[in-house]
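User: Could you go from structure to sequence for me? I need the amino acid at each position, not a summary. Structure tokens:
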């Protein structure tokens, strides 16, 4: 999956359409751009409490972040 497809298919990073990112000065240089520490902390803290009640077999949040980080990194590396 390309970075463009990933951004269009998900709500990761910003609430503006992908096509408008360059116009607004939003760029992505590394996977770390998608995982600001405040957001990671918020998601980590709420992971079991918010999702635990609706997801029977909730994976560990670290596994999810590691896999997502790898996907974003691979998408960025695939860009020309």
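Assistant: Here is the amino acid at each position, in order:
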């Amino acid at each position: 999956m390309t970075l463009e497809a990933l951004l269009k298919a998900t709500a990761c990073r910003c609430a503006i359409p992908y096509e408008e990112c360059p116009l607004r000065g939003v760029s992505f240089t590394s996977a770390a751009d998608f995982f600001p520490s405040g957001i990671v902390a918020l998601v980590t803290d709420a992971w079991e409490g918010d999702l635990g009640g609706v997801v029977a077999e909730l994976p560990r949040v670290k596994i999810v972040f590691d896999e997502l980080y790898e996907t974003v990194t691979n998408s960025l590396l695939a860009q020309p």
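One structural detail worth keeping in mind: The chain has a mean pLDDT of 76.
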